[in-house]
Design goal:
heterodimer, A: 288 residues, mainly alpha, 9 helices, 80% helix, rod-shaped, B: 127 residues, 69% helix, 0% strand
């Protein structure tokens, strides 16, 4: 079980290097997340945006990588816990060896956490970039929509006026021309009546309240909220990095303590063993 | 007559107050409106014929105006011409505007371009 030998300064150095540069583990990794989402995602209801982004992420190599590391972390954590629980069952050299194993396990655990944090950071920065791109697209759409809305507003006012005087206009025209209503006018009235009843049905539909928020404005709002959430997660990852640094520091102190204990044990062994440097020390050899 | 000439020129320019719009519905309305004004200004036809022709034009104009008012494609065609054409209700939508004001189409148009009976009567023929 105990194949590894004494803790050395190399372990401490390795811990500190891996924590100080958690991206190093990821730098070699070719699996990342390149979002396959186009601006068409904006056609979806705002509430679905985050789900679709997360769905795209779950299909990426980065997600697979993160899941693998997560599994390794769980394995490593249970190994450390098992070793720590059994530490009291060992004596002398075996105990030192067990402590050494715990330190090695913790070192591996911190390395894995460092990798996981780097991947988390990569996921969040990629998501943030995607959200920023979507926000820019929405801002451009919003500019176009504003101009479009102006024309729609004028047309809406004109429609109101037209509806108000439609009957009067028809009466005047029929009196002046002595002709029946035009085919267009008849068909238009018929269609408008149909549109009105459909609009009423839409307004009364129970799903209408859900889709009513599906405007570009609310999308911008939701994307901004998602960006704030992502930035908050990034800040948490930074704190996690700091936490890892402290863990590594503590572990290096543990390793130093172990190294000192090992040195002390060697010293004790050396001092307690008989020396024959003086004639009186060698006396037992002669009187036996 | 010389004083009236510039007024008529302005009036003719007002047939296309903001130039031709890109949308078909607006083009059709502008065309019909131009023909109506041509009838109003045609000195070769008598008043009875003018009334008859104008009434028929009004019927067509009313339909075309409704088409423009309800044309959703205009919103996607964001041009200043379209916007200004729609904003100029009194001159673009002659049939609707004249009915709203309880005036004959011809009277409404003349008034909108500043040609009232008083102004014409007050005009002085000079060389």
């Amino acid at each position: 079980m105990f194949k590894n030998k004494r803790p050395t300064s190399a372990i401490i150095l390795a811990i500190l290097v891996s924590v100080a540069n958690p991206n190093a583990a990821n730098a070699e990794s070719s699996t990342g997340w390149n979002p396959q989402l186009s601006e068409r995602i904006l056609l979806l209801p705002p509430k679905r945006l985050n789900d679709v982004i997360e769905q795209d992420f779950s299909k990426s190599g980065l997600a697979v990588n993160m899941t693998d590391i997560e599994t390794e972390i769980s394995g490593q954590a249970s190994l450390i816990s098992e070793l720590s629980e059994n530490l009291d069952n060992y004596q002398n050299e075996a105990k030192i060896e067990a402590r050494h194993q715990v330190i090695v396990g913790k070192k591996n655990y911190i390395e894995l956490l460092g990798e996981q944090t780097a991947l988390k950071q990569l996921r969040l920065t990629t998501k943030l970039t995607l959200l920023q791109r979507l926000e820019r697209t929405l801002a451009q759409n919003d500019k176009k929509n504003k101009q479009r809305t102006e024309v729609q507003k004028i047309q809406s006012e004109l429609q109101k006026k037209s509806t108000m005087i439609a009957a009067k206009l028809k009466e005047e025209i029929s009196l002046e021309t002595l002709k029946a209503e035009s085919n267009f006018s008849k068909a238009f009235d018929k269609n408008m009546a149909a549109i009105s009843s459909l609009k009423a049905a839409i307004a009364n539909h129970n799903m209408q309240s859900n889709s009513a928020i599906d405007t570009d404005a609310s999308k911008v709002e939701i994307i901004r909220r998602m960006m704030v959430d992502t930035e908050a997660e990034l800040a948490l990852v930074d704190i996690e990095n700091e936490l890892l640094g402290h863990m590594a520091h503590l572990l290096s102190l543990d390793a130093m303590a172990l190294a000192e204990d090992v040195a002390l044990q060697s010293y004790d062994l050396a001092t307690n063993s008989p020396t024959f440097s003086t004639p009186s020390d060698a006396l037992p050899l002669f009187i036996q | 007559m010389k004083k009236i000439a510039p007024l008529l020129a302005i009036a003719l320019l007002n047939i296309f107050p903001f130039g031709l719009a890109n949308a078909n519905s607006i083009e059709n309305l502008e065309r019909e409106r131009a023909l109506t004004i041509e009838t109003l200004l045609d000195p070769t036809i008598d008043s009875e014929n003018r009334w008859k022709k104008t009434s028929q034009s009004k019927r067509r104009l009313a339909d075309l105006e409704v088409m423009v008012i309800n044309d959703k494609s205009l919103a996607s065609n964001i041009s200043l011409r379209v916007k200004n054409t729609l904003k100029n209700y009194e001159l673009t939508f002659l049939a609707h505007a004249s009915t709203e004001k309880d005036k004959a189409l011809a009277v409404h148009w003349f008034e909108e371009i500043g040609l009232t009976t008083d102004q014409i009567m007050a005009a002085r023929v000079s060389k």
